[in-house]
Amino acid sequence: MKADKNLLSGSTTLLVLSLLSSGDKYGYEMIAALEEKSDHTFTLKEGTLYPILHGLEREGAVSSYEKEAPSGRTRKYYHITRTGLRLLDSKKAEWQSFSKMVNAIVAEGGGALSPT
Amino acid sequence: MPIPAYEEFCSRVCAHVRFKPARAAISAELTAHMEDHAAALMDRGLSPEEAEEQAILAMGDAGELGRAMDALYSPFWGCLRLWLHRALLLIVVLLLLLAAGRGGTALEEHRQRAAAIQHLEGQIGTEALSALADWSPGPVLSAGGYTLTAERAVLSGGEERTLSLLLRVRHSPWLRDPAFLRSLAGEDDLGNRYRGWYPDYPAFWEMDVSSAPSSPFSTVCLVEIRSIPAEASTLTLFYDRGGYRVSFPLDLKGGVAP
Known about the structure:
The structure holds two protein chains of two kinds. Chain A has helices at residues 5-9, 12-21, 27-37, 49-59, 82-109; strands spanning 25-26, 62-68, 74-80. By secondary structure, chain A is of the alpha+beta class. Chain A has a three-stranded antiparallel β-sheet with strand order 1-3-2. Chain A is globular, with a radius of gyration of 17 Å. The model of chain A has no long low-confidence stretch (mean pLDDT 84). Helix content of chain B is 41%, strand content 30%. Chain B has five helices and eleven strands. In chain B, the strands form two sheets. In chain B, strands 1, 2, 3, 4, 7 and 8 form a six-stranded antiparallel β-sheet that branches. A five-stranded antiparallel β-sheet of chain B has the order 6-5-9-10-11, with no helix packed on it. In chain B, helix 1 (4-14) crosses helix 2 and helix 2 packs across helix 3. The relative contact order of chain B is 0.10. Chain A binds chain B through residues 26-29, 31-32, 45-48, 50-51, 54-55, 58, 71, 73-76, and chain B through 13, 26, 28-30, 32-33, 35-37, 39-40, 58-62, 64-65, 68-69, 71-72.
């Protein structure tokens, strides 16, 4: 099942920071990891990753460096900074509170809409 | 070698990025991403053409991506950051040059001092038999950003004496060369006046100022005051021009006068 893109777009920063918290990665590596971890549920337009990464870099949440791959291709790696780790914590808390609220509403509704 | 289809996609993205210096890095990163994706697809069995096409499609809308990047790279802030970076770099380079210049200046000062002392030693040598006193008066005057130090003084001769003074003037590099050295005059405690560089001056006392090469921070010169009567015990050097007068006395018996 593919995830609703609107659900995904609000949490891409959280996903990117989470992926980077386990180690430095380059752009395509993040996309591949995201797909693999979500069993191909999360597929975002790959270009949208870069405005997020560049924005996080501007905020100081990530830093970047270039490294040559064995194939000779130069890749830009991203590294999560301390500011990024703090941002990740706050995004996680935000997400947990949001999902708890959604779960509560969904559970209360019993999965059916009734006319008033 | 860049694939034309990737280049075309990147130029459609970058057409929206108004801050031109950011375009090359954005293109390089997007191209690397598409190459990585295409390589992964080829590993799964797709042909290079199919992989290339899918890698580009997976990127999404070039215009949307370009506009999002443009929002991050505002031309105003981008240019400001670029110029601030350049200004910072320039300041660092200037500081390094200044530091290197100071090092060079210190060496040059050392060389000047060595040359001037050698010259003075040579003079002492010729008048060794009649050297009466040899001392280091030290800093004697500080005014207007200049510090004048009499590094060495040698009094020689018999009935008529010669005072050889090794003078150093230290000053900030933005101050003019201490041309006032050429306007220094002297007067002993008997009332005799000594003046250099004025051939038509009525006094018959002599003062020669031979300047060594100067650095931006200091000037060394050898001053010789000749024909000083043996009876004189103090000599006062002074600068007196345009209502500005500074002076310092030297004890001819070997020291700075109180």
